[in-house]
Amino acid sequence: xxxxxxxxxxxxxxxxxxxxxxxxxxxxxxxxxxxxxxxxxxxxxxxxxxxxxxxxxxxxxxxxxxxxxxxxxxxxxxxxxxxxxxxxxxxxxxxxxxxxxxxxxxxxxxxxxxxxxxxxxxxxxxxxxxxxxxxxxxxxxxxxxxxxxxxxxxxxxxxxxxxxxxxxxxxxxxxxxxxxxxxxxxxxxxxxxxxxxxxxxxxxxxxxxxxxxxxxxxxxxxxxxxxxxxxxxxxxxxxxxxxxxxxxxxxxxxxxxxxxxxxxxxxxxxxxxxxxxxxxxxxxxxxxxxxxxxxxxxxxxxxxxxxxxxxxxxxxxxxxxxxxxxxxxxxxxxxxxxxxxxxxxxxxxxxxxxxxxxxxxxxxxxxxxxxxxxxxxxxxxxxxxxxxxxxxxxxxxxxxxxxxxxxxxxxxxxxxxxxxxxxxxxxxxxxxxxxxxxxxxxxxxxxx
Amino acid sequence: xxxxxxxxxxxxxxxxxxxxxxxxxxxxxxxxxxxxxxxxxxxxxxxxxxxxxxxxxxxxxxxxxxxxxxxxxxxxxxxxxxxxxxxxxxxxxxxxxxxxxxxxxxxxxxxxxxxxxxxxxxxxxxxxxxxxxxxxxxxxxxxxxxxxxxxxxxxxxxxxxxxxxxxxxxxxxxxxxx
Lengths: 448, 178
Known about the structure:
- The complex is a heterodimer of chains A (448) and B (178).
- Chain A has 448 residues and is α/β, with parallel strands linked by helices.
- In chain A, 32% of the residues lie in helices and 17% in strands.
- Chain A has helices at 9-18, 42-51, 76-92, 104-110, 142-151, 176-187, 209-219, 233-242, 256-264, 310-313, 325-328, 331-343, 361-369, 372-379, 429-438, and strands at residues 27-31, 34-38, 63-66, 95-97, 119-122, 136-139, 153-157, 161-167, 196-200, 226-229, 285-290, 297-299, 307-309, 320-324, 353-357, 382-383, 404-407, 423-426.
- Chain A has a five-stranded parallel beta sheet with strand order 4-3-2-5-6, with helices on both faces. Chain A has a five-stranded parallel beta sheet with strand order 16-15-14-17-18. A four-stranded parallel beta sheet of chain A has the order 10-9-8-11, covered by helices on one side.
- In chain A, strand 8, helix 6 (176-187) and strand 9 form a beta-alpha-beta unit.
- Chain B has a single domain, classed as Aconitase, domain 4, CATH 3.20.19.
- The interface between A and B is large, with 58 and 51 residues.
């Protein structure tokens, strides 16, 4: 019998994209709005595309490839991967985010390619980051991406949803990263596997769009398939700035002809209305995070969900500090880091390598224009090309044997950064900056 | 792949084996040739594993096998080592999909009684796998695959599935209710 209960955001988006009454547990075939490939996954995607008999891409305007994992290429082989991706993109008319433009799921939202209610699939597990814009965004492998390039479709099991309520007043100095680490510690490494996460509650307003991306991003470390925010003024302000034709007002007035003319435009709020959950939606779990009770956190080796309070990790020597990635490489992250470093003496401690990698060229240019990069460089930082950087050992600085690394990234698996003997700790930009100044893991509130 | 059965030796791992542990990103930076990459299979967990693995061995994991990066090469390198199935208490969703899409059989079952070196008999029929620990005559029930995943697996993976029409034809009619 057809259920009449309300739907979660995931059920509503996947119903719209599958043209069916999609409910948690169903397997549905969906039309996709945006397909994202990377240099790490697209060479394999091209192989599958050819084996599948692919001749053309279903709609080049709905596909982007990002050269972000090998940015810049450090070997002839990775340079060849880039040429292979560029050649395929040229043949099929697909946009390439070139070397240095940044991380796929950072640049796609910056360029207005992700809209409320969209179904976004990417061959990168951190594609979930795009959920900050009210999209159902999820990571898939290369073969699923190849099938989507040919058919414009993918199949998805409609996930159950964990509803996260953000409550309480946010203490000064509590980073989105700290909240995200607290969240995945609560979820555990597979607590959200096959499930999606929705963020709600009175305190969502306390999070900027960049900070919402941090929480969506980290959710995948709890296994989440998607991590979705509702639309509010913060979302609308971001879209007005990024999307041509986005006025921020839903079209209710005007004549029928005017409304039809507006709707015929490719992108407009009236064609991408916000997707909110029904009031009587069913959730698999409800989880409340009281921000007032949270404090800076550190994830300790070698599991992102193994999270302790900064006090419990304090004093651990650090040899390399990494500011960057799709978790901690945005403008506000570097502003926070500089702010803390300045208060902590304005220099990097002897024996510490501070690596700065903006998440995108836009972020880099902003940091150049506002002087942040000059300050960080003067303090002793090295600056590397926008992209995934040192996060997965594919580009940039590799830690030495036995080093302790403190990073704003999302994964601290053994050997993740390219050296199995290094120990990776994860924390907020502020905690990383305070620790860079002292040479040991330090509570940023002690220097702020 | 309608009905298949095979035997294999259990190679046991713990919980949360992530895809970086299966094959490091730094290795696939140098080549995508699985016949080369298989030399580094699971090196971060057990550096001696790749040298000792035999075609026909079966990987046995705990909870959340294949978490982390969505990289598909983690599934194809396992296949290249001659491993036809991975058994685990649970799988991370991207690894599970990537396995099915390449016709590597993911078997979700309670693996807690399987010990290193146990001889396992696996049979798979119509989306349902059964595992027997032959030495102890102990049978483990596996979670059945969703019909669409069983169809992809039966086709021999996503490549033949898409080549034969796949889900390209009819979106609305292809809904599988629980």
